[in-house]
Amino acid sequence: MDGPIRIVSNRLPVTLQRVSGVLERKRSSGGLVSALEPVLTRRGGRWIGWPGLKLQPGESLSDADDPFEIVPVELSTNEVNRYYHGFSNATLWPLFHCFPSHARFEHRDWQVYDQVNARFAERAAEDTHDQEVIWIHDYQLTTAPLHLRRRVPEARIAFFLHIPFPPHDVFRMLPWNRDVLHGLLAADLIGFHVRGYAQNFLDCVQRVLSARVDLRSGLIEHGDRTVQVAAFPIGIDYQGFEQRATNTPSDSELRRQRIVLGVDRLDYTKGIPHRLRAFERLLELHPEHREDVVLLQVAVPSRDQVAEYQELKREIDELVGRINGRFATATWSPIRYLYRSVSQSRLSALYRDADVALVTPIRDGMNLVAKEYVASQVGDPGVLVLSQLAGASETMREAVIVNPLDRDGTAESIHRALTMEEPERRSRMVALQRREREHNVDQWVEGFLTAARTAAVKLAPVTDGDFEAWLGGFVADHRLALFLDYDGTLTPLRRHPSEAVLGPSMRAAVEACAAREDTDVTLISGRALSDIEKLVPVPGVTFAGNHGLEILGPDLAPFRHDDVAYYVGRLEKLAPRLEQVCIEGAWVEEKGASLTVHYREADEAQHEQFAQEIRALIQRAGFQARNAHCAVEARPPIGWDKGHAVLHILRARYGPAWSESVRTVYAGDDHTDEDAFRVLRGLGITFRIGPLDEQTSALRRLPNVDGVQALLEWLARRP
Fold first, then answer.
1. Is 485 noted as a catalytic residue in this protein?
2. Residue ranges of the domains in the chain?
3. Following DSSP, what letter does each residue of 304-366 receive, concatenated?
4. Of the listed 109, 264, 485, 487, which one is catalytic?
5. Each residue of 348-402: pLDDT tens digit?
6. CATH code that applies to domain 238-438
């Protein structure tokens, strides 16, 4: 597939800066640009991102010779500080790299981050076709897929994370972990560099969101959608690095000594201090390398305005000075330290001429330096020494693999690389080159986009095995109190509530549960009590109408909240005022103790504005305004909801110590059910029905009404 690509990332492939008032454009650094720019140059398309500064009137980002369209997303100074330096790099970056002690958690940073993600999504949604794949990149844009999905519901959205995804014990430290997962799950395909990161993500989705996940196939059930999660190890422009290494002249000064090369951004995840100490240990253990070997460390400046990075630079400067002071002679210094960017041609020459590449990050998503070094070995082959904590180590097995935190072990591995015989060096390098040549960046792009364009196979429907795992031990040998919402839970949501009729198979499942001597079934709905009784004419069932303001059932005294009578008359007066402002397709449902304004049949473009107006009118009338599915409910302001109603029924039926004698299961699909989910957190097992787009306090998810029926059928025939 050779069509154009639409890329969305934090940074553009070019960065702007002003020098003496003149706007200059230079190529951006980083692995993402290195990987994608050559592909986009060949195929064309659009790259959406932040240019690095705010354009002045009359200034242009684009150049007439650009092979693809560059679309800027401008950020204010405050947004740069909170979205980029703040949440992206002071929260997600350290946490995802398993450095939680370096992370800060500021609510305002999170708010600005999400707002900026929404702006990226807005630009990405411009001029799109429903079936076009939009490829969003990296940790700065984890909520952009959800904002984009809301703007272009039918779009094919793909996301790729270029850094590690942490295990659950680390990820759950993030106060907004659910929001980040919801943001990512709006994509159709979520890619990671290695399988371990993908497995971490699947585990977090399962444990944080209680979503249904197939760990083996990498599928996540997301309401009516299935999200595919997979590993796609990134490659490089192999041919480009190979050609530059072949054509770039040698540096005669460097070739007088054997070179151990390190190339990194200045970042605490790269392990540069550990590398320097390991090289120092090499000189201690193997003095034969003194005056023969030089560690050439290139450190590209990064986030140099951040105090933590300034401190890291001071530490590195001091280490270089101390080690050179300890071992240097009149004609030799053991470490040559370059704190600056290096041109592509110069870097290719360094790669080609280095005897050893020392790639030893403490944590890294992939690390393209390792691959670039391999592609540049066009002469007498060198040796790659690679950290086992870099994603690249999962595929680059022929490298000398080290633990960068083991100083002595790393020193001995450097010694081994420096003394390795030519046949072994060549065998290892040839195998590495064969794989990287085949799995280059073009193959990575094609493989990812092919997967992104292919709809994921849906998960099989929930089975008895699922319910046994979730509920078997919980309900065994106990009485069960089963609470069920109606609309959206026992019947699909309809355009008009009158169309939501209980199907015969669902009715049979409810009846089977109610017929068990050890099970008490309660229907709890926002509908009027009389309405829900007619809809579910099942003997032995308890009914709670108006979100539990009215309750009627066996072994229970009839209940109607004491304050309802005071508000019934006021609701009767409010109803006609709401009807007067109803737009076409909206209508008012009076339910005695409450009322609901429905607007599902109205023009979708008017939904948000109409709902705001209705909420304001309800609140001015002295009632609570609660959101429902394409509806706004007016409830008496008496502090009563489904959660209070559930507790009332449990205490009235089983006594104050009800949790010792009965097990509680609740299934619902609405905002109003969240009140019950919160009350039952830790006391029962709760199911939210429908998509994952909204957060929930429920313990588990079911995709649809069919899942609820399967649940009831399992409960009815459980041992």
1. yes
2. 8-73+117-231, 238-438, 464-561+640-717, 564-635
3. TTSHHHHHHHHHHHHHHHHHHHHH--SS--SEEEE-S---HHHHHHHHHH-SEEEE--SSBS-
4. 485
5. 999 999 999 999 999 999 999 999 999 999 999 999 999 999 999 999 999 999 9
6. 3.40.50.2000
